[in-house]
Specification:
- The protein is an alpha+beta fold and 107 residues long.
- It has a six-stranded antiparallel β-barrel.
- The longest helix has 12 residues.
- The two termini are 30 Å apart.
């Protein structure tokens, strides 16, 4: 998923998730980005429809990957997050199923 990260100092970084769940995200960031003096405060998910801004806190970082967990969300935010995360076809497909589908398409 394409996302925008917002930091406490006003910095904004566009990125892409590597993994997304109802509890948080793993986001690919530039490997040379120094996060030692930055605190991520929000993430904006771009889902193709309306954008969803959610409060987050860093859960860890390293090797070009920032892991964030969602803070307390409103009902509307939880609903939007569910649609954004679980509404993606790749959230439901296993590698075996993807292979099976691609083989059927090739036939």
């Amino acid at each position: 998923l394409p996302v925008t990260l917002f930091f406490d100092n006003g910095a904004v970084i566009d990125a892409v998730t590597e993994d997304a769940s109802i509890g948080g995200l793993a986001v690919r960031i530039p490997s040379d980005l120094d996060l030692s003096n930055l605190a991520v405060t929000e993430v904006e998910l771009r889902t193709g429809g309306e954008n969803l801004v959610l409060p987050v806190k860093a859960a860890g970082a390293g090797a070009g990957l920032l892991r964030v967990r969602f803070l307390e969300l409103s009902f509307e935010q939880r609903m939007g997050l569910s649609v954004a995360v679980l509404g993606r076809s790749d959230a439901w497909e296993t590698e075996d199923r993807k292979l099976e589908n691609s083989m059927v398409k090739a036939a």
